[in-house]
Amino acid sequence: MTNTLYDALIAPHAKNGGTFLDLNDGTTWSYAYFVQRVAQLAHVLRDAGVTPGDRIVVQAPKTADTIALYGAALQAGAVFLPLNTAYTQTEVQYFVQDATPSLVICDPSRLDDITLIADGVGVMTLSSTGDGTLSLAADDKPTDFETVARGPDDLAALLYTSGTTGRSKGAMLSHKNLLSNAVSLVDLWQITDQDRLIHALPIFHTHGLFVAMNTSLLAGSQVRFMPAFDVDMILAELPKSTMLMGVPTFYTRLLADDRLDVKRTEQMRLFISGSAPLLAETHTAFEAKTGHRILERYGMTETNMITSNPFDGDRIEGTVGYPLPGTEVVVTDNGAPVAPGDIGMIEVRGDNVFQGYWNMPEKTAEELRENGFFITGDLGVAADDGRISIVGRQKDLIISGGYNIYPKEIEDVVNDIDGVLESAVFGVPHADFGESVMAAIVLEDPSLTDTTIASQVEPKLARFKHPRRYIVMDALPRNTMGKVQKNVLRNDFRA
User: Fold this and answer.
1) What phi and psi, each to the nearest 5 degrees, are found at residue 455?
2) How many CB atoms lie within 10 A of CB 483?
3) Please, are residues 123 and 106 in contact by the beta-carbon 8 Å criterion?
4) How far apart are CA 84 and CA 14, in angstroms?
5) Segment 423-426 long-range contacts (CB within 8 Å, at least 24 positions apart)
6) At what angle do helices 248-255 and 280-290 cross, to 10 degrees?
7) Residue among 157, 124, 170, 488 nearest 360 (CA)
8) Which DSSP letter does residue 16 get?
9) Which of 78, 186, 193, 486 has a C-alpha 20 to 30 A away from that of 402?
């Protein structure tokens, strides 16, 4: 019997004595041990009543057993549903009610809260110290498990979107969706069993779980597995590693440390950034300090990775590169392709594109065309050679006085001003114009004034694009993956 993802990512390592996970406590897991631990946890899932196709909700710490649990869900034929560890009881209740799982895994500290909302559903615990009921139950289980058959189109995971514009939507991801993306990325980024990845991302998100872990498993790479981002820890690991996958915040914090230099990064071969736009200044400063040019890529929950700047070739700041092999990307206006250089909606089709939204057939029909193209909600531009640049989210588009205003165009101008660290442009309701342009800014130079900023913006942008107000903030509101939450800014400053 075959199991598409398990057979590709995990089964080949049954006799691999090489290191897979290098953990914070100084211990390591070999690939062979990982395969055995996956089997032990698969036994626990089956004993808990999990059957093929059942959903497993996981809101647990970032540990080696959490990754093994993902493997166990695959081997048992279940659907893995990771949740942000910051979600509240009320938020988790929505996911449990919507996904109707057969088992919920949580941190022991949240057991009482989760038990209250998981009425009639089994609950087990997984702790950072290994004393949760799930891990303890697995310790005595057999180290082999008869893998459940699952095909390319069977569900492997259910990932919920952030839900900034309404109810969170559960993106249904198949074995084929996840495997096709991992195969493309391993080839494109030339990942091998000689690589050592620094992993400091959360594992409840596409980036940290599917991009980082699936590619490492497929290639047989070593993973320096960290509980969270820590500047000191990452700087210590750079000389012993070859890859880092991160979000822009990782790179700005590393740049702020004088210990980051060419010598410390000479063994590294690839720095990857995603999940949020990387400022051009960060690109330039990082290359100046390390000699490395960060590779920026673009993806989303529903599609995994869509495009990437090239491994060999120009990595141009402000762009997200070219469509991955086997992935079609078009920029459209109401479904019709626009000319290169024109702004339009980014649509994508390929084996990486999800199967639809859980329990939301109407929403699926709205965003997934009958011809297989997914309407991303991102506005972008395609160059003549197919290189893609992101302009912003459609929901962030500002319409003022009948004019379409793209926030990123204004942000690029504001961010170029000496003394401005970063900015976020957004719209708020306006009685006459429909919306008014606002700019939240974080300053490097506290003496910089609104008047000075406005005077530098004025000659570079048409008047209707000028921010009507500049709001100085200590930091822009961001989610756990580093994305600026413009919905928060709109709500906070709509008056």
Assistant:
1) -65, -30
2) 18
3) yes
4) 31
5) 424/476, 424/484, 424/486, 424/489, 425/398, 425/467, 426/396, 426/398, 426/486, 426/489, 426/490, 426/493
6) 50
7) 170
8) -
9) 486
What does the alpha-carbon distance between residue 416 and residue 459 come to, in Å, rounded to a whole number?
Answer: 13
Amino acid letter for position 155 = L
Q: Please report where in the chains the tokens 């994508």 appear, as a residue.
A: 348
If you ran DSSP here, which 8-state letter would residue 433 be given?
T
Q: What is the DSSP letter of 461?
A: S
Structure tokens that stand for 143 in this block: 């180290």
User: Which secondary structure element, helix H or strand E, spans residue 198, and what is its range?
Assistant: strand 196-199
Contact call for residues 461 and 410 (beta carbons, < 8 A): yes
Cα–Cα dist 315/124, whole Å: 45
What are the Cα distances from residue 294, in Å, to 247, 272, 304, 406?
11, 6, 19, 25
d(CA 425, CA 406): 9
Q: What is the CA radius of gyration of the chain?
A: 23
The Cα–Cα gap between 453 and 441 comes to 10
For 225, the token pair is 């597995």
Amino acid at 72: A
Query: What percentage of the chain's residues is helix, strand, coil (to nearest 5)?
Result: 35, 25, 40
With CA atoms as reference, report the closest residue to 156 among 280, 7, 261, 263.
7
Q: Which two tokens stand for residue 203?
A: 């594992």
Q: What is the pLDDT of residues 93-147, one digit of tens each?
A: 999 999 999 999 999 999 999 999 998 899 999 999 989 999 999 999 999 999 9
Find out whether 171 and 367 touch, Cβ atoms under 8 Å.
no
For 431-479, write each residue's pLDDT tens digit: 767 789 999 999 999 999 989 999 999 888 878 889 999 999 999 998 8
* CA atoms 365, 366, 368, 373: torsion sign: positive
